């Protein structure tokens, strides 16, 4: 289980100050992973999961519940970031499923598959939740809306053109 000391080391390694926004953490993770990160609010079933992480060959994708408070949205996103910060093994989606996830109108069957936990371990879920709690209690300074696409420096022109073509999604 990642403790606060190890988390602070990870955050320093990302070049973050002691206090930062969720958007700054997203930018730092995208930069470190060398790939775009898409944060997408979705009207997820209230009784179901509140967020999910999906990793494609070229893009990291996080869907989170849009029908909740901004504070809760940030906690959901920080939980998914917790999986990335802890190095948990994630499901990689390719082909048509990956393309549908990035398109403005997501196929509900794909969303259901995506929202199945990307980590099969209960221990990984507990660690991600612990990291989110630490982030929210000690590091996140304010709650703001999130840019849908976070692009690190050095992303290829092909990826940028694809993202321009896909547009911002839908509200």
Brief sketch in words of this structure:
By secondary structure, this protein is an alpha/beta fold. It is 48% helix and 13% strand.
Structural write-up:
Strand 2 and strand 3 form a beta hairpin. It is built from seven helices and five strands. With 171 residues, the chain is of the alpha/beta class. The chain has a five-stranded mixed sheet with strand order 4-2-3-1-5. Helices cover 48% and strands 13% of the residues.
As an assembly, this protein is single chain
Q: Major sheet, described briefly? A: 5 strands, mixed
- How many helical stretches? 7
Average residue-wise pLDDT: 81
| Cα distance spanning the termini | 36 Å
* SSE ordering: HHEEEHEHHHEH
**Strand element count:** 5
What structural class results from the helix and strand content?
Answer: alpha/beta
* Strand neighbour order, sheet with most strands: 4-2-3-1-5
CA radius of gyration: 15 Å
Strand content: 5-15%
- What best-fitting shape do the alpha-carbon axes yield? globular
| Residue share in helix | 40-55%
Task: Report the uncertain regions.
Answer: none
Name the descriptors:
single chain, 171 residues, alpha/beta, five-stranded mixed beta sheet, 7 helices, 48% helix, globular
